[in-house]
Amino acid sequence: MGYGIDEIQRIRRILSEKLDPGRYEHTLGVSFTCAALAMAYGEDIDKAEMAGLLHDCAKRFPESVLIEKCKKNGVYLSDAELESPAVVHAKYGRYLALKKYGITDEDILNAISYHTTGRAGMSLLEKIVYVADYIEPRRFKAPDLKEIRALAFKDIDECMLKILDGTISYLDGKRSHIAPDTLSAYEYFKGLKK
Ligand SMILES: [Fe+2]
Ligand SMILES: [Fe+2]
Fold first, then answer.
1. Which domain holds residue 98?
2. Which ligand is nearest to the CA of 115?
3. Does the pLDDT of residue 194 top 90, yes or no?
4. How far is the CA of 43 from the centre of ligand 1 (A)?
5. How many Å lie between the centroid of ligand 1 and the Cα of residue 139?
6. CA spacing 20 to 30 A to 122: which of 22, 132, 182, 191?
């Protein structure tokens, strides 16, 4: 099933009320960047726009509230996910996209679910959302952004590897927990180069 402009605008309106202005701006940036990457790689543009729009739909709740909501609604969280609470908004986001926003496309739901960690064997749409979240126009903090933005449109797998590499080094440096899905994503994209 496709998602047309009516559906995209309906969800945009809801999110503009639910998310704080900064998060909404980021959401639009990701959504349009997803559309641009879809053009570059031949993915369905509406689908990419929709996935970008909803990727952070659960980010308005504090982490402790998100964990409670997951428990209440039977959204499974592994021990590793509970150890890196930043991941939980992605898992609950998938649930909200399905239950509240009526998205049934499994690829969109997975793109929301894996947008913070990545995973081995990511679909094109999953990669588009992951990369768009990192490079959208309002981002400024990440190092090497200029290079990563250019790479995103040249070789999305290489771009994934570079972002994952940077993320793992950053988390390592902070002695933070690294999600197993992030590590297996890194190994997967490294393996593609051989
Ligand atoms: Fe997010
Ligand atoms: Fe995001």
1. 5-192
2. 1
3. no
4. 21
5. 13
6. 22
Task: Please state the domain count of the chain.
Answer: 1
**Over the chain, what HEC string results?**
CCCCHHHHHHHHHHHHHHCCHHHHHHHHHHHHHHHHHHHHHCCCHHHHHHHHHHCCCCCCCCHHHHHHHHHHCCCCCCHHHHHCHHHHHHHHHHHHHHHCCCCCCHHHHHHHHCCCCCCCCCCHHHHHHHHHHHHCCCCCCCCCHHHHHHHHHHCHHHHHHHHHHHHHHHHHHCCCCCCHHHHHHHHHHHHHCC
Q: Does the reported pTM lie above 0.85?
A: yes
Distance 55 CA to ligand 1 centre (A): 6
CB-proximal residues (5 Å) to ion ligand 2: 56, 133
pLDDT in tens, 120-144: 999 999 999 999 999 999 998 888 9
